[in-house]
UniProtKB/TrEMBL annotation:
TM segment ranges: none
Protein name: Anthranilate phosphoribosyltransferase family protein
Domain Glycosyl transferase family 3 N-terminal residues, every copy: 7-68
Gene Ontology CC entries for this record: cytosol
Keywords carried by this UniProt record: Amino-acid biosynthesis, Aromatic amino acid biosynthesis, Glycosyltransferase, Transferase
Tagged with keyword rRNA-binding: no
Record flagged with keyword Amino-acid biosynthesis: yes
Domain of life: Bacteria
Originating species: Pseudanabaena cinerea FACHB-1277
PANTHER family assigned to the protein according to its UniProt record, in alphabetical order: ANTHRANILATE PHOSPHORIBOSYLTRANSFERASE, SLL1634 PROTEIN
NCBIfam families: PRK07394.1
One GO-annotated biological process of the protein: L-tryptophan biosynthetic process
Domain Glycosyl transferase family: residue ranges: 95-333
Length: 343
């Protein structure tokens, strides 16, 4: 048993009236001890559930992010004039709507915008569809690649994926606790914020609840992260919905702007594509990248329009949607998919 970790546990788990939040340094040390297995399984499970009940503070999340930056996967900067867009979506996957972030990433990469995604396998407690399964169904295997290969893919193909079990096994070792405690621990919020990339970047963090966005913004400020976007997307992901208004926060330097976007304003219906198995979604993607009309293609165009605009490739979203359609019609997005399948 770790006596040092027991003090952290006593601090956060003392109850409604006497529990206290950890300092940033304490949260970092507690996270390191959990990742390295220096805390016992009983201590780790107790900490996760106590911390969830107490609710993490922005300072604690900043400390946890310190630990992930110290021990996590690290991709060196690439030689590129544009910011890398790092997509932070929930690791526990999707159970209602079909992900479009993979297809969006392929179109962005075809336009020369580098994109980095990260995630794992099916994750408790939701056990939703993970992105890695769809990549595999598309014929792209990120599971066995070395970090150097991921860097090469990001630099040459403008697209890469960090796979938690292979590239950050310390974090993967904490996954079984999620099933055992039956609740999302604060690490689920941390994954929306964490970036494995070390160069010039813009972090895109999905969220569901407004307090989560506040914590993300405040923790980023503590880390000096000033280029980021928060998206209240499908099921907490970075995918913009068409069936409802999207609440977005855009931070550049010391300026934060709130943006409210509705797909109907840009001529799209309110129909979001429903979840399906990985092979079916892979078929949706390849069909859409061939330019064949579908509601799934419309969701790709809607999302690409937003992210092209964020990346500065268009002065407004309407223009960006047209540009995304041109990338697809010219076969560049399908070519990008084929290049990744061969690499």
């Amino acid at each position: 048993m770790s006596k040092e970790f027991r003090e952290f546990l006593r601090k956060v788990g003392s109850g409604t009236h006497t529990s206290k939040s950890l300092t940033r340094q304490e949260a970092e040390m507690a996270t390191i001890m959990m990742l390295k297995g220096e805390a016992t399984p009983a201590q780790i499970g107790a900490f996760m559930i106590a911390h969830r009940i107490k609710r993490p503070t922005s300072e604690e999340l900043a400390g946890m992010l310190d630990a992930y930056k110290l021990l996590g996967a690290s991709i060196a900067p690439i030689a590129h004039e544009r910011q890398v867009l790092v997509f932070g979506s929930p690791y526990d996957g999707r159970s209602k709507t079909a992900p479009v972030s993979l297809a969006t990433s392929l179109v962005l990469a075809a336009a020369g915008i580098p994109v980095l995604l990260h995630g794992g396998d099916r994750m408790p407690t939701k056990e939703g569809m993970p992105l890695i399964d769809i990549w595999q169904a598309l014929g792209i295997n990120w599971r066995d690649r070395a970090i150097t290969d991921l860097h090469k893919a990001l630099e040459q193909q403008h697209l890469s994926f960090v796979y938690l079990p292979q590239h950050f096994p310390l974090a993967q070792s904490l996954v079984p606790y999620r099933e055992q405690i039956g609740k999302r621990p604060p690490f689920a919020t941390l994954e929306l914020m964490w970036s494995p990339y070390q160069g010039n970047q813009c972090i895109i963090s999905g969220f569901v609840h407004p307090p989560t966005e506040v914590h993300i913004r405040e923790a980023f400020a503590m880390h000096g992260i000033s280029e980021f976007v928060t998206v209240k997307g499908w099921e907490g992901s970075v995918d913009l919905a068409r069936s409802r208004t999207n609440i977005i926060g855009i931070n550049h330097g010391d300026h934060f702007e709130r943006v409210i976007l509705a797909a109907s304003k840009y001529g799209f219906s309110n129909q979001d594509p429903a979840i399906a198995d990985a092979d079916t979604i892979a078929n949706y993607i390849t069909t859409a990248l061939k330019g064949e009309p579908s509601e799934y293609l419309n969701s790709i165009l809607w999302n690409c329009g937003f992210y092209f605009w964020i990346a500065g490739l268009a002065t407004d979203i309407s223009q960006a949607i047209i540009y995304a359609q041109e990338i697809i019609d010219n076969g560049l997005a399908m070519q990008k998919l084929q290049d990744l399948q061969r690499s």
